Design the sequence.
């Protein structure tokens, strides 16, 4: 009886018929594609680990979908502080350095990257803050959420992990826009952010040399054709072009086999997919990302409860921006920032966090007293 009461308190009233099956099905398809290309670009063992992480992700999806997300109201600040503590803890003995970056905790069987769940924690914190306010005419109302976003970004940048830190800015703007913050205030924040970036660029020691090379190589590839950034971008583009229409076949991509594509199971997995599958089979993959984005935007638009709407909107923005920015980097449409392709790239923390974020979307969708859909009557 006590266990049943605890579960009912945790889950609330769940409308199971509203579970967003298309979201889970799309995630599983992308995970399967990821496992195949992690195998092709790395090894069968890593592909099996990818599937194990996906299993953990499915457990996280179910746990978060069952959880009544409204219980998170009022405690998101605690989650946020714990997330900051986890990021700061990387600089203690518990953190480890890999490839000159201090981003992980060594938990024995796997490495945990706290910046990944921090993205979801920030979505919750911002959704809680913005859903509790009604007037946004004053700029000073934006100071607390800006400080929350900026502090998290700073702790991630110093690891250094500019790509993950970059993802937090669209989350802030997406949630703020959906909350009804006047566009003029958001434009003022953008202008201030641009000034800070310019100041950082010209301040010695702030921007790392390799980060400068990535930006310069994107703007003017001929400026330093021998740099690592120019080489990586060129190899990624060559792999995509080599795929042509029908691809070279799974496991038979020439540049992939030669190891010419950098970080080909993580940051540059999209060129591997394009080389081996070609445009004919890669295009439906891109469409699937677009469909999942549109589906979550649709759920956000139909959510009448503010906290839930902002959660779904924040997850949608995070997923869409990271997915399409990863592809844009591979196509030389954006500077290299080191972003994984959600659900496809190898990475346990990223995979589990993405499934957990989809579980939160499912929670908003299934808790019947929180969402009302046109043409339906609440149960």
Sequence:
């Amino acid at each position: 009886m006590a266990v049943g009461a605890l579960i009912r308190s945790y889950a609330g009233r769940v409308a199971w018929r509203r579970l967003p099956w298309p979201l889970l099905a799309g995630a599983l398809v992308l995970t399967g594609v990821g496992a195949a290309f992690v195998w092709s670009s790395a090894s069968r063992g890593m592909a099996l680990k990818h599937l194990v992480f996906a299993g953990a992700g499915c457990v996280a999806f179910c746990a978060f979908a069952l959880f009544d997300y409204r219980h998170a109201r009022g405690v998101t600040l605690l989650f946020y502080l714990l997330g900051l503590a986890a990021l700061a803890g990387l600089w203690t003995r518990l953190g480890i350095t890999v490839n000159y970056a201090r981003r992980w905790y060594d938990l024995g069987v796997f490495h945990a990257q706290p910046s990944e769940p921090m993205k979801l924690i920030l979505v919750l914190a911002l959704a809680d803050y913005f859903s509790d306010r009604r007037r946004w005419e004053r700029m000073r109302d934006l100071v607390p959420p800006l400080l929350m976003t900026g502090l998290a970004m700073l702790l991630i940048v110093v690891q250094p992990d500019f790509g993950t830190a970059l993802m937090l800015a669209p989350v802030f703007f997406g949630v703020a826009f959906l909350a009804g913050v006047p566009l003029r205030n958001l434009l003022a924040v953008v202008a201030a952010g641009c000034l800070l970036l310019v100041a950082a660029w010209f301040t010695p020691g702030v921007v790392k040399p390799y980060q400068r090379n990535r930006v310069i190589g994107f703007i003017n590839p001929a400026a330093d054709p021998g740099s690592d950034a120019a080489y990586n971008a060129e190899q990624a583009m060559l792999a995509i072009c080599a795929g042509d229409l029908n691809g070279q076949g799974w496991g038979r991509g020439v540049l992939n086999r030669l190891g010419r594509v950098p970080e080909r199971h993580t940051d540059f997995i999209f060129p591997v997919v394009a080389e081996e599958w070609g445009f004919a089979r890669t295009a439906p993959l891109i469409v699937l990302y677009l469909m999942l984005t549109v589906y979550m935007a649709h759920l956000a638009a139909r959510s009448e409860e503010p906290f839930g709407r902002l959660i779904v909107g924040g997850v949608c923005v995070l997923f869409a921006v990271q997915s399409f920015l990863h592809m844009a980097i591979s196509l030389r449409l954006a500077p290299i920032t080191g972003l994984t392709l959600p659900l496809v790239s190898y990475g346990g923390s990223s995979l589990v966090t993405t499934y957990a974020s989809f579980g939160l979307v499912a929670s908003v969708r299934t808790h019947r007293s929180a969402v009302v859909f046109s043409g339906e009557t609440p149960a």
